[in-house]
Known about the structure:
The chain is an all-beta fold.
Amino acid sequence: MKIAGFLLVWLISVQAQAAAPIQVPGLQDISAGTSSTCLVFSDRVFCFGANFYFENNPRVSLTSPRSVDSGNDHHCAITDNGLTCWGGMNTYGQTSV
């Protein structure tokens, strides 16, 4: 969860659960899919996670990303050049934009 430039991370252990705010400079947006998550910065999108269907690797260079949204095994980003999607098996055409 992003609030005023901070990324809130929940640390879960057997003893307790706690929320710890971590400041991430330049963070503009965040989106989580089923098995991977993407962070948007002013000059790039950084994705991490399982990467079963190459969802962590945008197929093109994303210039000036504004936001990102995540599906089951794919992500889409809005940039100055329009919409770009990547990852997934494209079963329903979700990355054919």
